[in-house]
Amino acid sequence: MRAVIQRVSSASVTVEGEVISKIDKGLLILLGVENEDNLEDIDWLSGKITRLRIFNDEKGVMNRSILDEAGDAIVVSQFTLHASTKKGNRPSYIKAAKPDIAVPMYEQFVKKLEADLGKKVGTGVFGADMKVQLLNDGPVTISIDTKRKE
């Protein structure tokens, strides 16, 4: 799994003109699933995200997690995170899982994140043309790949 985590002051997802998810302070998480991903990837990634100390403390130092801040989250499926640009100029998405694998993994990740945060998590609509708006706070953007764990 690959995730791009953005610390936001606000974020929203709109599908066909309707806002389906909206948060204030928290995290916008773009999530890409590949064929080899499993439940261990879900558990590790959710735990890592909820414990990431990327929110400022009273001294302005990134020392607080989303849990410490009681922040909200939105998770948006993003197969293009698995783009390979090694050959030519047209990205290949061969590593990105097809919907029959990606949808259940995405849904499981959302459930695990909700359990870890102790609250409902906003989502996009898998496969839909989504309009994602965010006000990146910082900006703080972190990229994580469960296969590399760095």
Tell me what the structure shows:
- It contains 3 helices and 8 strands.
- With 150 residues, the protein is α/β, with parallel strands linked by helices.
- The chain has one domain: D-tyrosyl-trna(Tyr) Deacylase, Chain: A, CATH 3.50.80.
- The strands form 2 sheets. Strands 1, 2, 3, 6, 7 and 8 form a 6-stranded mixed sheet that branches. It has a two-stranded antiparallel sheet with strand order 4-5.
- Helix 3 links the parallel strand 6 and strand 7 (122-123).
- Helix 1 runs parallel beside helix 3.
- It is globular, with a radius of gyration of 15 Å.
- The relative contact order is 0.30.
Q: How would you summarize the topology of this molecule?
A:
Layout: E1 2-15, E2 18-23, E3 26-32, H1 39-51, E4 55-56, E5 62-64, H2 66-69, E6 72-77, H3 99-117, E7 122-123, E8 130-145
Parallel strand pairs: 3-6, 6-7
Antiparallel strand pairs: 1-2, 1-3, 1-8, 4-5
Helix pairs in contact: 1-3
